[in-house]
Design goal:
globular; 21 strands; binds thymidine-5'-diphosphate; alpha/beta; single chain; binds magnesium ion; 3 domains; seven-stranded mixed sheet; nine-stranded mixed sheet; 29% helix
């Protein structure tokens, strides 16, 4: 029997309708790598953040039955409600002690419950080691260590190297955020670690792990978990060659704290820097040393950074610098030699090359040194990268010492910035620098004349030498 035409037509529309609800649609969108802005077509200039050439293509699936983790969490009887501000318990009172002074310091005095912390760093720098070690040390806390990068055996091997056994540290190898949430609710840990955010996959987003849309979604989901259950979550994130965390800048906006783990892989030292912190100062810094048995805290950095101090060779000067809030003394080494080729070479490790060129130009123009035909190499000891401008004076002193081939006294430190006219300028926290030099038994410290005003020098044994110009420094040194 033939059905009337209009029934046929209805069946057909029903079918197409069904087809649309069941099958998801795949489409191509473009995301800005910098800010996560979305566009249906490629554009060269991002209207969101103004970046150029930052759009990348990604395939996303829309219309799919969204299994967003965010929804699942809302179902868990946690409802928001307004409370009087006086009844809110300050996060400071509930900070978790990480049993590691350096780590507590960068977090602003301990880990805040419900915070989302991003730990960024180059591959192989020791991010997994750091968080596993911290997790193993926290014996009275239940920790869920989720890895999408390594197998449980690999993590166990690392734990064996670290040499601590902790029954409260649970390992989970999983990348699906829905599954992670399920286990999270089962375990209800005190702290969760995700290694790494680039391996996470949300079932609500059909893009490959590590893509911008996945990172954006999964980080937001982890944030939701952290905030709803008031459990701190660590996200490990890889860093691209140019130093940015792979994924959109938006990741840095979502999280509460961004820590960066850095250092030269060929040296043992690792610096943990606070880049952003909603719960503390963003200029903190912790120092570690990578050993065969994991990371060791370095509580007195100056002693290590000055280890090769005995040999009396020219071109070495000690800078009293402040990294974050900590004063430390560090060795700067310069080598000045006649240029082997027509164009002299200038090369730096751990220092900005443009700044070195500027300082050399100042020496040439204001103090009459003919360095134009010389190769100049500069090295900061320990593989550290220094941004504190107070290292200028030590760089100048090291260059002068190498150029004159006269060794400097190993018990002299320097702390001042040098300006374009050859003037020696004041720097911040000069008393902390003097106190550090004093504590380490230095005989002299050169500072700017302008820093010296109003200082009470009677409490220090170290002699403080104020200088106003580069010419004056030269006269007092040689
Ligand atoms: P890892 O934590 O895997 O780096 P990331 O997670 O940042 O990629 O650590 C990498 C390096 O650390 C690796 O080259 C081996 C070294 N290491 C030690 O030197 N000592 C140790 O005890 C451990 C566990 C690792
Ligand atoms: Mg790792």
């Amino acid at each position: 029997m033939r059905l009337p035409n209009f029934i046929n037509f209805q069946l057909l529309t029903l079918q197409t309708f069904n087809f649309h609800t069941v099958m998801a649609k795949t489409k191509t969108v473009f995301f800005c790598k910098e800010c996560g802005n979305e566009s249906p077509k490629w554009i060269g200039h991002c209207p969101g953040c103004g970046a150029w050439n930052s759009y990348v293509e990604e395939t996303v699936v829309t219309g799919k039955d969204s299994k967003s983790v965010a929804k699942d969490i809302d179902l868990a009887h946690f409802k928001s409600k307004p409370v009087p501000i006086k009844d809110v318990v300050s996060a400071d009172e509930r900070r978790i002690d990480m049993m590691c002074g350096e780590f507590n310091r960068v977090l602003g005095g301990g880990l805040v419950p419900g915070s989302l912390v991003l730990l960024g760093g180059e591959p192989g720098i020791g991010k997994s080691t750091l968080l596993l070690q911290v997790a193993l040390h926290l014996k009275d806390k239940k920790i869920l260590y989720v890895s999408g990068e390594e197998s449980q055996q690999q993590i166990k091997m690392r734990a064996d190297r670290i040499g601590i056994n902790n029954e409260n540290c649970l390992l989970l190898t999983e990348t699906d955020t829905q599954e992670i949430l399920r286990h999270f609710k089962d375990v209800m840990p005190d702290i969760m670690v995700i290694d790494s955010v680039q391996t996470l996959e949300s079932p609500g987003v059909e893009a490959t792990a590590g893509s911008i849309s996945q990172i954006r979604e999964t980080a937001a989901e982890m944030n939701k978990i952290a905030k709803t259950f008031q459990v701190p979550v660590f996200l490990i994130g890889h860093i691209t060659k140019d130093g940015a965390i792979a994924g959109p800048k938006i990741l840095e906006h979502i999280v509460d704290t961004v820590l960066q783990f850095e250092g030269d892989r060929h040296y043992g030292f690792r610096i943990l820097r606070t880049v952003k912190n909603r719960f503390g100062s963003s200029s903190e810094l912790g120092i570690f040393e990578m050993n065969a048995g994991g990371l060791r805290e370095v509580t007195n950095p100056s002693e290590i950074l000055l280890s090769q101090r005995d040999s009396n060779v020219s071109g070495i000067a000690i800078a009293a610098m402040v990294e974050g809030m900590r004063p430390m003394l560090i060795e700067t080494q310069a080598l000045v030699s006649t240029a082997a080729y027509g164009t002299p070479q200038r090369s730096c490790t751990g220092f900005d090359i443009r700044r070195l060129n500027m300082l050399l130009a100042v020496l040439e123009k204001r103090a009459g040194f003919r360095l134009g035909a010389k190769d100049v190499f500069l090295n900061i000891a320990g593989g550290l990268r220094v941004e504190d401008p107070a290292i200028d004076l030590a760089v100048m002193a090291a260059v002068l010492s190498s150029s004159e081939d006269v060794p400097l006294d190993g018990r002299t430190a320097f702390a001042a910035e040098v300006g374009l006219s050859g003037e020696v300028r004041a720097v911040n926290r000069v008393e902390a620098r003097i106190a550090e030099a004093d504590k380490l038994g230095f005989d002299r410290i050169f500072i700017s004349k302008y820093s010296a005003k109003g200082l009470d020098l009677s409490k220090y044994k170290v002699e403080v030498v104020p200088v106003a110009t580069i010419g004056e420094l030269y006269k007092k040194l040689f």
